[in-house]
Amino acid sequence: xxxxxxxxxxxxIGKDCQLKIITTTVVKNIITNTHxxxxxxxxxxxxxxxxTGVVSFLTDTSSKMVYSVMPLFLLSIGASKTSLSLxxxxxxxxxxxVKTLSGFWSDKIGKNKPFLFIGYGLSALIxxxxxxxxxxxxxxxxxxxxxxxxxxxTAPRDSLVxxxxxxxxxxxxxxxxxxxxxxxAIIGPLAAFxxxxxxxxxxxxxxxxxxxxxxxxxxxxxxxxxxxxxxxxNLFKKFHFSDFPKKYYLFLTIVFIFxxxxxxDALLLVKANEVGVKVAFIPLVYLVTSIVSVFLSxxxxxxSDKIGKxxxxxxxxxxYAVVYFGFGVTSSIMAIVAxxxxxGLYTATTDGIQKAFIADNIDTNKQGTGMGIYNALLGxxxxxxxxxxxxxxxxVNSSVPFYFGAATALIAAILMIFFTIxxxxxxH
Length: 428
Fold this sequence. Notes:
- By secondary structure, the chain is mainly α.
- Helix content is 79%, strand content 1%.
């Protein structure tokens, strides 16, 4: 029906004021929707999802330049493997509370972008400062503040991504974010390798150069990302545990068990070095993981939207169990490289998929809080996970922490199978 014909229809029923108001409203809605501009998309994604990915790419380029050599740098200034793991665990766990608070706060005020600006800005400031440290304790201080920045930004960022998803493509959208993350994880180690080739053994030069891409990320954040609009009447004002479904907490329990054996990746790099991979090539070995993850994250995310996130997660946990068991038994450089490649498959099937699963199962106005609790759980659990792994590595032998990680991943996979069965029964 045209706007003109609706107008004549409105005049014809002019005696009925109620119908008159309804018809006028319909006409206004038709006109508004007809002239409403289509949101511009980038490579098939909402602008917020795409540009958030770009910011993560640049920031991860910076952080992976640092982290790909940080374990060896720490060992060079007197850190033990236990203290190396402890630094990672304390830095992650002490910032975990920030993740929960920032997620809830972003839900409460209905804004995400300010948290992204503060969080990414703090990381950009910290990266070059690693060049001036002299002791492992100083590294811990900087890691604490840098991880606090990540804590401030992580949940609001994930909430922004989830809130910008269209057509129910949460898996695909978080898959893009993971792919962009890992693209930075490719460029970062490559840049570190190039700098080590030019300045052999000069880790501090890498730290100085690492500040450049993170600053570029701030510019993309300011000019590329728009605040996701939220209904002010529907904001999440007060937290209650009952606001989240039972399946959300059951899922977090499985994630906790899995994460307890998922210690810092720094031990994987140390293991590679002990097996025989030269220091200059350590960043390139880690690069293999990122390359595999980049190519697989989006297609696996899209597949999870079709067949279910639970099935992909079960597969991911099983892959992790295989990888960690392999790290425990192997003494071959080629096997180590293959395991790092398989580790990339694991990251593509878990990191983004876990977030997508949460986004699918909690209300939109609570996604910042829900993501915050999830990310805080990961951070808090990393402390005991890293301490356990570090002690087992130093006090027992280099294989035991990897066997422990394989065992917890296998338990998580089994629990996820039962969880999936219970979900299907409840839906029927």
